[in-house]
Amino acid sequence: MKIVPLTPVFAARIEDVDLTRPLDDAVFGEIRAAFEETNPASGTTFQRQSNLDIKTGEVIPPDDRRMLYQLANQLWHSDSSFKKVPSLCSLLSGRIVPPEGGATDFASARAAYAALPDDLRQRVEGLVCVHDFTWSRDQVRPGILTDKERAEVPPVQHALVRANPENGRKTLFIGAHASHIAGMSVEDGRALLRDLTAFVTQPRFCYRHEWRQHDLVVWDNRCVLHRATPFDSTRYHRWMQRTTVSGDPREPPVR
Ligand code: OGA
Ligand code: MN
After folding, report:
1. How far is CA 156 from CA 129, 153, 175, in A?
2. Exposure winner among 156, 161, 191, 212, fewest CB in 10 A?
3. Looking at the whole model, is its pTM more than 0.90?
4. What is the CA radius of gyration of the chain?
């Protein structure tokens, strides 16, 4: 097995591992250690992201609700940050990848935190952020969720600054579900979150993954933001299968 770093701050490619067979403990241990280090238990959710109808295999028209709904993936986010117990990691499997477009971008909020200017670092310390699934969907199209769907996802609160329990390295826990800051006006909170997202997603903290069919990308949702990028969904097929693993419910500082 070979672990090849992809940027100076995070992301690595793992070569020569056969995922069609169970991994032995030594190999799994090496991958897990790399995950904690390179930025890169639990419940698991599955989600299909595709422009192909699951039953017919036909291309879904761009104005279909299912495609609009997926547009939210193009906002920088951390999967499931709107849940009480947020995610440890996601695994994204490229089943059908378009010949152009449709890359996935990643940004290391951990590397960005380490580079935060002192005044900003002091400002964020101790703040609590409200994460709200309805806010991330409203950014794509207000009203896309029904009242019943909205009622199923009440907002939750998480510390804005989180530390990795293994190595203590701090990060900003933000993204598209992060709506505002507790105890601050919604407007001021959103302005701060916009500034922080802009800082984290500077090219120097980013890695773009151009997909090859059958790639499997694993990332740490605790400290990495990601976003889908556009492709011509009327011309090409794209089918991604996502698995999201929930974090440790005992881990502070979730409130
Ligand atoms: C996701 C996601 C990105 C992509 O499935 O959560 O953000 O490029 N996908 O499809
Ligand atoms: Mn996602």
Report:
1. 8, 9, 14
2. 212
3. no
4. 18
